[in-house]
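Limitations

Structures in this collection are predictions, not experimental determinations, and the ligand pose is part of the prediction. Treat each record accordingly. The example that follows, with FE2/S2 (inorganic) cluster as the small molecule, is included so readers can see exactly what is and is not provided: the inputs are given verbatim, and the output is the predicted complex.
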Amino acid sequence: MSLSVSLTVNGRLRTIILDDPRVTLLDLLRERLALTGAKKGCDRGQCGACTVLVDGRRVNACLALAVSLDGSEITTIEGLADGDDLHPVQAAFIACDGMQCGYCTPGQIMSAVGLIAEGRAGNDPERVRELMSGNICRCAAYQGITEAVIEAGRALAERTAPSERTERSLA
Amino acid sequence: MNRFDYLRPTSVADAVALAAEPGSAYLAAGTNLVDLMKIGVSRPARLIDIGRLPGLDRIDWLPDGGVRIGALVRNSDLAYDARFAATFPAVAEALLSGASAQLRNAATVGGNLLQRTRCAYFQDTASACNRRHPGSGCDALQGENRLHAVFGWSERCIATHPSDFCVPLAALDAVVEVEGRAGRREIPLDIFHRLPGDAPERETELDGADLIVALRIPGASAAFSRNARYLKLRERTSYAFALVSAAAALDLDGGTIRGARITLGGVAARPWRARAAEDALAGRPADERSFAEAAGIALADARPSGDNAFKIELARRLVARALALALAGTPAVMPALPASPFAAAAGADHAA
Ligand SMILES: Cc1cc2nc3c(=O)[nH]c(=O)nc-3n(C[C@H](O)[C@H](O)[C@H](O)COP(=O)(O)OP(=O)(O)OC[C@H]3O[C@@H](n4cnc5c(N)ncnc54)[C@H](O)[C@@H]3O)c2cc1C
Ligand code: SF4
Ligand code: FES
Ligand code: FES
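Predicted complex:
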């Protein structure tokens, strides 16, 4: 049974012919599109290393069958930067030392992009930790990760609404 | 993972017709099913992808003040729906205490109800498990069974149902709407999951091709909105299944309890509604003494199925605690750590 899947991956429309419906989104990205940024940690939804955005929402690519996402828009870590200009979340992870070995980092960053878009954590570290709990870091870089998420949230808010700057810093 | 055929029907009627063929399974987000297929526990010959069936992704408010939730509504979308969270706050709290943000973004309401047990022997195809392979035995009985049931178990199976969402739903008289080959029918959520008895492989009241189309919570259950909590004890505070959990809700008339709802999670193959304890609270003063007595009644018939007697005492204390927190009032904002008894002041932000 041959199936065709069309996905817009990092802004580019890709049509992939699958000979087998068992392919997960993670395997499609890594094995067929050579996008190896999303990592396969557990392959069972338990670590978050495979986090990508599907239609703007963060999900675990390892548990989604690629065929079921036909027509969706996928954003991976490779699609975040604008040329050499890092995305604010990427920049914040560097500035705040949000990593050690880096294995979990693409998933952490994609999860943080999703978290900021969801708008539920504000700059409360407890809420950030809770809403980032789906991303495990074997090196335990959690302190830096939490700071990076808060910092990136601030940078993104300023980028979209510079006039609210003073208000936010008072809050 | 076994090979399977993949089908994507475009109507509920087509989905039900396709699923009538033996070996078929519905695919929603796949966060449980694909996982179990990877480890060989589920081996469907055909996957019927219901992810895009029209009309099942809506939250509709009903004339009686209740709500109808389509089976494909995502767990996070329901929990963050402002009106839903204000009307049925314990349900929103339970949803946000489950899994991770990524999983909640994908997971559907129907899939959450039908997620399978987390019993390790169920997941290990080399083990004996009556639920997975009827008649093979139950390795959990003499095995690692700290997390297993203390209510409603049998010698054939001592597993628990792991859903958080289902616990407050059972407390609030939710009803499951099912479309089957013989048309539409409704099943109360608190008896939707079957106790194991002699046939643990029959996990729910659904038959082969039955499709969950929606869940309803009646308007009368909104009476508990100001005093409702879900508490969940876990071995880590986030991204973990419940050891035991409790939904508690009070309808108060001044200092007197007009009505109470109590349901335990993580203790049986279904959410365990404690009706005798609820009845004992009606008309009583809303205080620690009433809560302690009700908690005792709620656990009176509990029986360990292995190394899990500790869960009974834990659950008893959790019921009393959940009732006390319900009395204190539904937090104005969702606590930073939903359902955690370790959260700081209810709903408050936390200094790092
Ligand atoms: C790491 C991890 C941690 C988790 N932690 C928690 C937790 O703490 N608390 C918790 O409650 N849950 C937890 N979960 C479970 C999660 O909530 C479920 O996986 C999810 O809700 C399933 O929804 P789904 O849409 O992905 O279902 P699927 O995986 O697509 O389906 C699950 C089952 O339901 C059937 N099905 C789905 N929809 C329908 C329908 N409409 N009608 C009939 N049959 C249907 C499928 O055939 C399948 O058998 C966790 C999962 C993972 C992977
Ligand atoms: S407790 Fe139930 S699910 Fe676990 S091994 Fe025994 S029969 Fe299987
Ligand atoms: S690889 Fe997907 S969650 Fe671990
Ligand atoms: S930086 Fe090493 S796993 Fe997170």
